[in-house]
Structure formats: structure tokens, C-alpha cells
């Protein structure tokens, strides 16, 4: 069976075995993935590029550290009034 072109993961940090598999896949296969998560540290650890979405609108796309810094400058911190449409979308290759 062919490998998927892109792997989409919605909040995978709740499953540690899956996280280990993601990291191994990235290193061994150079696989591209899209990760949807509110966990800043996880996103920074495994993603090359990050998209910050707030209220359904793309705020910024860039380096994980840059996007987390931008997020921290916004008025509403993640987890304190955040809506389901806010979050980090990380990309890895």
C-alpha cells in the first residue's frame, strides 16, 4: 500500500504512542503532516511551519517560535476564552 501524501493529525498529543510514531515517520520517511493542536510545546517540537487561526481567520503563517510569540501578544490567551476555531496548525516535512 502506498504511503499517504500528507498525514492529518487532530490533537495527537493525547496519544503518546501516536506521537512517537509521528516523530519516527518524520525522521525515517520525511513524511509531510498537518497537526491540529493547542499544545504550543508539541507544535514547536515537531513542526517546521505553523499557521495561527483565530475566529476562523488565518492570523499568520511562519516559524513555530515566531508564531507562538505572536500568539502570546494577542489579547486572549489560549485556554482562557479560546473558541473551537482558534489554534495552531503545524506543518512538517
UniProtKB/TrEMBL annotation:
Protein name in the entry: ABC transporter ATP-binding protein
Biological process per Gene Ontology, one example term: organic phosphonate catabolic process
Organism name: Candidatus Syntropharchaeum butanivorans
Entry-linked Gene3D superfamilies: P-loop containing nucleotide triphosphate hydrolases (3.40.50.300)
PANTHER family reported for this sequence: ABC TRANSPORTER, ATP-BINDING PROTEIN, PHOSPHONATES UTILIZATION ATP-BINDING PROTEIN PHNK-RELATED
InterPro entries (UniProt xref): P-loop_NTPase
Domain of life assignment: Archaea
Signal sequence, start to end: none
UniProt cross-references to SUPFAM superfamilies, sorted A to Z: P-loop containing nucleoside triphosphate hydrolases
Amino acid at each position: 500500500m502506498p504511503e499517504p501524501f500528507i498525514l492529518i493529525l487532530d490533537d495527537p498529543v493525547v496519544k503518546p504512542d501516536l506521537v512517537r510514531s509521528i516523530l519516527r515517520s518524520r525522521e525515517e520517511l520525511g513524511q509531510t503532516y498537518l497537526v491540529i493542536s493547542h499544545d504550543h510545546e508539541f507544535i514547536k517540537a515537531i513542526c517546521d511551519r505553523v499557521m495561527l487561526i483565530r475566529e476562523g481567520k488565518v492570523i499568520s503563517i511562519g516559524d513555530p517560535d515566531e508564531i507562538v510569540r505572536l500568539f502570546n501578544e494577542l489579547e486572549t490567551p489560549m485556554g482562557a476564552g479560546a473558541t473551537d476555531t482558534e489554534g495552531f496548525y503545524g506543518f512538517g516535512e
